Amino acid sequence: MRTTAAVTIGVGATAAVVVGALLQAGTAGSPLGTALTLSVPAAYKSLVEQAGNTCPEVTPNLLAALLTQESGFNPQARSPVGAEGIGQFMPSTWEHHGIDGNGDGKRDVWDPEDAIPSAAKYLCDIAKDVKNVPGNKQSNMLAAYNAGSDAVQKYGGVPPYAETQNYVKSINALAGKPTGGGKQTTTQQATAALGAAKEMIGKPYSWGGGNASGPSTGVCCSPRGFSGSQIAGFDCSGLMLYAYARAGISLPRTAAEQYAASEPLKPGEMRPGDLVFYGDSAAGIHHVGMYVGGGWIIDAPRPGTQVRYDPMDMMPDLYGVARPVPTHSKEI
Questions:
Q1: In the predicted model, what is the mean pLDDT of residues 72-87?
Q2: For a designed S-S bond to 273, which of 43, 87, 194, 227 qualifies (C-beta 3.0 to 4.6 A apart)?
Q3: Residue 121 half-sphere exposure, CB side, CA atoms within 13 Å?
Q4: The domain defined by 28-175 carries CATH number 3.40.50.300
Q5: Per-residue pLDDT tens for 122-138?
Q6: Fold of 187-324
């Protein structure tokens, strides 16, 4: 949790460690119910279930998604700007909103028994702060957790900060994702998606390019980039969206949203067609490719390149591998 949108918090491992380990082995704003269906470490499951019913605006799934986004359930997480613990509280915010959740007489930001109930209570508090702000109330509440209630009130909704907007989209997507038995893509679907991606080898990189129909016009360089001319092609997530559309599966548009719509894999579970993500946290994912096998991916890496094969360790911040969980699909 941050009170500015300056940086993204990260707890990801280095590419070398992640690659080595892998190769060796609702609709936003809709009622989500009070049952916890997201995957949560066993040590924290009961805490999340209890704290997730603190107020009507917070559910166990929403709280679990937020903690996944903030720290990956790492109670020792510390951000470059000083956010601390499993809930990533800034010291000043903890001072005002931290509670003694386990009744031991201390308020310890590093103790999940205090920090998880505090995160839920803080969500409830800021939900009241922004209740009169127009727009989706759940999104406004999450934006306030990330950027502060004042920013949400100032802009009349989710602030125009890229990090905060990505943060809100990712948590909403994760909180509403079918898990705990949700149907993952089949081998047949993954094979079809991989085949579609291979057919696009050589197509130019185009920032913002690519849709369910194929290459499309985007900005050829980066959003801060160079010529700004238009070219039909793919960016990294556009290529994945297209490839899985060919397999009958609808994916969200951005890499971070695609991670939130997928099921993380354990070492040894990887298969061709799975998605490989890069970034320093779930909210900070900035690149995605498709696993081919043997430590290689297909991706659209950056301006000035084409869709091509790259090694998985092409970037130093490989975050993980995940398999899409279809929300809208058809048999192929």
A1: 90
A2: 194
A3: 16
A4: no
A5: 999 999 999 999 999 99
A6: endopeptidase fold (from Nostoc punctiforme) (3.90.1720)
